[in-house]
Structures are given as structure tokens and as C-alpha cells.
């Protein structure tokens, strides 16, 4: 996601200065991402240039400057909030490329790779489930949704890994039958 | 820990299925006090494995030893006693007796095992209390939700303090919240030393609650994974990628 809209969203609640934006953003994401203050700062400046936010009052202690959302900013935020995501699906994991290459290489050790990957996903399911449970206990329903998303994606990855393994077994079996 | 169950090269072939054995050379050990999930797609042999350990069926080849006792050499009457006294079962459907109260349902196995009604009653009452469902004791199953009924079924399964608690898709008929409550109950029993075997097709359930996950594929053990305690900060598990806007 773009930091730009994250900042607009936080400023829609109340005016904030840079450090508050950084801290609130990190808390919003439940510690799943550390935000770089330099990025926050330059993004705020660009948003000010594009008249989506404006400075409030004078610079305070240690040069702290608070910003608030303008009408232009609010409109951009609202448009973004209702826009469905239509980017191509990002399959970043190296496992995809490893599999593509392994199926071409005669000595690819696909079985081992799939088994090891499956273990990683199972452990991740456990870890994410506990985070989800903790968020539920802490009353952070928004984070429950984030972790639930992670769990569902991991379940899909696991299913896919198993489908690959199944496919490999069938290819091997057919190979044996042909002999 | 001491070894409770030992399967050695277990093969199970159903009539006419010689080409595709339901279990094909399974060797597996389970220690006392473990919580093991047996996972696999349908047809992978997980229910067959459970039935063999439960003494409901016999292997075609190989040995199944429970607490030093070879199930393969046991007579029918011995096996029936083993099932009654040593094994607790929980299935997907709760199978409570509708004409009996919750308390009476839980008492049944204790009475069948030879306890007096008074002793069975005391035992059932203590257990329901300990499992946090004491307030349901006088109600009839039809008045309970699915999740409550399954918790009663778990209580019934452990009233004789079985060596082994065998559960086959125990949350299959429940919504996720009630399912979690039933699973927490199994975890709690396991903490108290109860050996639990959970058969499930659901990887999330297996990974989340069991301490060890055995995966079956085509009747063979494809993986045997000891789960690590969940640690890790959220950032190590999940990332919402935040990018600066271009220009």
C-alpha cells in the first residue's frame, strides 16, 4: 500500500506531527511494519505541496510541525478508500521461481523443497493463529482481520504446495508405469 | 516420556483393495502425554489409522502395541474391554443420548465400566465442573448448542480416565468459535497429562493446537513435524508493504 493514503487516513482523525504519524501508523499495523521516519517526512512534504495537507500553527519543540487534512486530501482519501485493488497479484516468494526452475532441471530436488516449504507454512499457521487470538483478546478487531488475511493466504500457499507435491507423485507414478 | 503406542510396518488392505492399501507400511510411535494431530486429505488413511489404534479394526500386516500390549494378538472380548476402559472417542457428531441429561450421558461409560451409580455420578459431576460445564449438568442435549454438546461428548470420552483420547474431526460440525472452545478443552486435558490423537483434514487446526503433526499421504507417513512454540513478532510473520508514492 502507499504511505500517502496511510498518512491521509490518520490525519482524517486529527492533526498530527511527523513522529505521531509514524507511531500511529506502526500501531495501526500491529507491529507488522516499521515505518521509516524519513519516508513519513518526505511524504508529508509532498502532500503539502499537492495541497492535500496543510501545516497547523507554528513549529513547536525541536521543529515539530503538525499537519491537518485539507478538503482536497479528504476527497483523495475517500476516493482511495472505495477503490477496489486491481493490481496484478504479487507472487513475491522465491518458492515460485524455485519450482519453475526445478521442474526444468533434471536434478531438481523438488520433493525436499516442497516438504520443507510445507513445514514452514504449518509453523506459520500456528504462529499467525496465536497472533490472531492475542489480537482478539486485546480487543484489536482490526488486527484480527489483518492476521486472518495472513492465515487464509498461508492456507492457500499450503494447499498449493500440496497440489504441487501431488502432481509430482502422479508424474513419478506414470513414469514407473511406463517402464 | 514413555512410549504409549508403537506401530511397526502397519498395513491395512480392505477387501478387493489390494492395489491401494489404506495404510501402507506405517511405522509410528506416540509417547504418553503427547498431543498428535494426524492430518491428510480424504482417503489418505487417517481414519483407518485411528480405527486400528482404537481396536475397532485389525491390521492386515504389522504390529500395533499399546502400553506394551499387542492389539493384534488380543481376542474380541479383550479388545472390547480395551475400547471401553482405555480409549475415549470423540467424533464429528456428538452422539449424545437424547433421553438422558448431560450428567447422565457422562455417567454412562463409568457405569458400564463397573462403577456404582453413586461413584459414577460423583466422577461425572467433578469432571463437568472441572471442564467448566457444570452448570449444564441437568439439561438435555437437545437444549444445548452444537459446541456445548461436543464439550459434553469430550467429558463423556474422558470420564473413565482413558489412556488415550481419540478424536476424529471433532470440530467438523461446529462454527469456528465453538470449534475453538472444544479444541481449548482438548489442550487443557492434554496439559493435565491426557494423551490426545486428533484426526483432521484442517491444517490450521492441526498446527494451532497439536504439538506434533503427522501427515499421511496415500496411506504412508509423509511428514512428522514437531511444532515449535509460537514466538516471533508480527513483523517476522506478516508484512503490509508500505511504499512511498512515486515522485
Proportion of helical residues of chain A: 55-70%
Beta-strand level of the residues of chain A, as a percent range?
Answer: 5-15%
- Separation of the first and last Cα atoms of chain B: 62 Å
Backbone structural class of chain B: alpha/beta
Instruction: Show the largest interface.
Output: A-B, 40 and 31 residues
- Helix percentage range of chain B: 25-40%
Structural class of chain A: mainly alpha
State the major sheet of chain A: 3 strands, antiparallel
User: Proportion of β residues of chain B?
Assistant: 15-25%
Uncertain runs of chain A: none
Topology order of chain B in helix (H) and strand (E) letters: EEEHEEHEHHHEHEHEEH
Ranges of chain B where pLDDT stays below 50 over 5 or more residues in a row are none
Approximate shape of chain B: globular
The Rg value of chain B, from CA coordinates, equals 20 Å
Tell me, what's the shape of chain A?
Answer: elongated
- Total number of helices of chain A: 7
Oligomer: heterodimer
How would you describe this structure to a colleague?
The complex is a heterodimer of chains A (179) and B (247). Chain A has 179 residues and is mostly helical. Chain A is 69% helix and 6% strand. Chain A has 7 helices and 3 strands. Chain A has a 3-stranded antiparallel β-sheet. In chain A, helix 1 crosses helix 4 (71-82), helix 2 crosses helix 3 and helix 6 runs antiparallel to helix 7 (141-178). The termini of chain A are far apart. The relative contact order of chain A is 0.09. The model of chain A has no long low-confidence stretch (mean pLDDT 87). Chain B has 247 residues and is of the alpha/beta class. Helix content of chain B is 34%, strand content 24%. Chain B has helices at 46-53, 76-86, 102-112, 117-130, 146-158, 176-191, 203-209, 234-237, and strands at 3-12, 23-31, 35-39, 61-66, 69-70, 87-90, 164-168, 195-200, 212-217, 220-226. In chain B, helix 6 links the parallel strand 7 and strand 8 (195-200). In chain B, helix 5 (146-158) packs parallel to helix 6 (176-191). The model of chain B has no long low-confidence stretch (mean pLDDT 91). The A-B interface holds A 1-4, 6, 25, 29-35, 39, 42-43, 46, 115, 118-119, 121-131, 146-147, 150-151, 155, 158, 162, 165, 169 and B 41, 203-204, 206-208, 213, 215, 217-218, 222-223, 225, 227-228, 230-235, 237-245, 247.
Amino acid at each position: 500500500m502507499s504511505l500517502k493514503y496511510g498518512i491521509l487516513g490518520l490525519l482524517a482523525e486529527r492533526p498530527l506531527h511527523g513522529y505521531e504519524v509514524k507511531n500511529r501508523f506502526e500501531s495501526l499495523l500491529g507491529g507488522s511494519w516499521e515505518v521509516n521516519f524519513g519516508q513519513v517526512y518526505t511524504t508529508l512534504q509532498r502532500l503539502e505541496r499537492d495541497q492535500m495537507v496543510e501545516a497547523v500553527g507554528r513549529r513547536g519543540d525541536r521543529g515539530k510541525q503538525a499537519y491537518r487534512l485539507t478538503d482536497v486530501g479528504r476527497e483523495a482519501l475517500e476516493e482511495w478508500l472505495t477503490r477496489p485493488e486491481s493490481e496484478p497479484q504479487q507472487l513475491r516468494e522465491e518458492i515460485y521461481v524455485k519450482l519453475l526452475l526445478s521442474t526444468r532441471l533434471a536434478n531438481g530436488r523438488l520433493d525436499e523443497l516442497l516438504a520443507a516449504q510445507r513445514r514452514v507454512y504449518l509453523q506459520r499457521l500456528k504462529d499467525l493463529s496465536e497472533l490472531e487470538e492475542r489480537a482478539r483478546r486485546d480487543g484489536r478487531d482490526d488486527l484480527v482481520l489483518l492476521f486472518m488475511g495472513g492465515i487464509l493466504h498461508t492456507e492457500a500457499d499450503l494447499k498449493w504446495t500440496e497440489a504441487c507435491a501431488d502432481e509430482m507423485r502422479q508424474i513419478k507414478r506414470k513414469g514407473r508405469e511406463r517402464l | 516420556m514413555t512410549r504409549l503406542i508403537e506401530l511397526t510396518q502397519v498395513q491395512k488392505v480392505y477387501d478387493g483393495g489390494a492395489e491401494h492399501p489404506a495404510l501402507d507400511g506405517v511405522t509410528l510411535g506416540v509417547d504418553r502425554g503427547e498431543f498428535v494431530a494426524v492430518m491428510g486429505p480424504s482417503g489418505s488413511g487417517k481414519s483407518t489409522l485411528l480405527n486400528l489404534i482404537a481396536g475397532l479394526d485389525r491390521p492386515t500386516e504389522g504390529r500395533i502395541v499399546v502400553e506394551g500390549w499387542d492389539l493384534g494378538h488380543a481376542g474380541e472380548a479383550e479388545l472390547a474391554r480395551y475400547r471401553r476402559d482405555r480409549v475415549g472417542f470423540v467424533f464429528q457428531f456428538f452422539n449424545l443420548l437424547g433421553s438422558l441429561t448431560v450428567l447422565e450421558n457422562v455417567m454412562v461409560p463409568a457405569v458400564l465400566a463397573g462403577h456404582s451409580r453413586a461413584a459414577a455420578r460423583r466422577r461425572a459431576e467433578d469432571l463437568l465442573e472441572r471442564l467448566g460445564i457444570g452448570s449444564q449438568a441437568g439439561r438435555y442435549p437437545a437444549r444445548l448448542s452444537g459446541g456445548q454438546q461436543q464439550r459434553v461428548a469430550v467429558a463423556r470420552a474422558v470420564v473413565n480416565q482413558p489412556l488415550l483420547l481419540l478424536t476424529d474431526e471433532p470440530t467438523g460440525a461446529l462454527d469456528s468459535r465453538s470449534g475453538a472452545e472444544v479444541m481449548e478443552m482438548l489442550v487443557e486435558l492434554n496439559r493435565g497429562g491426557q494423551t490426545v490423537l486428533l484426526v483432521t483434514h484442517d491444517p490450521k487446526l492441526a498446527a494451532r493446537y497439536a504439538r506434533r503433526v503427522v501427515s499421511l499421504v496415500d496411506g504412508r507417513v509423509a511428514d512428522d513435524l514437531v511444532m515449535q512454540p509460537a514466538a516471533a513478532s508480527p513483523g517476522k510473520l506478516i508484512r503490509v508493504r508500505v511504499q512511498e508514492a512515486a515522485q
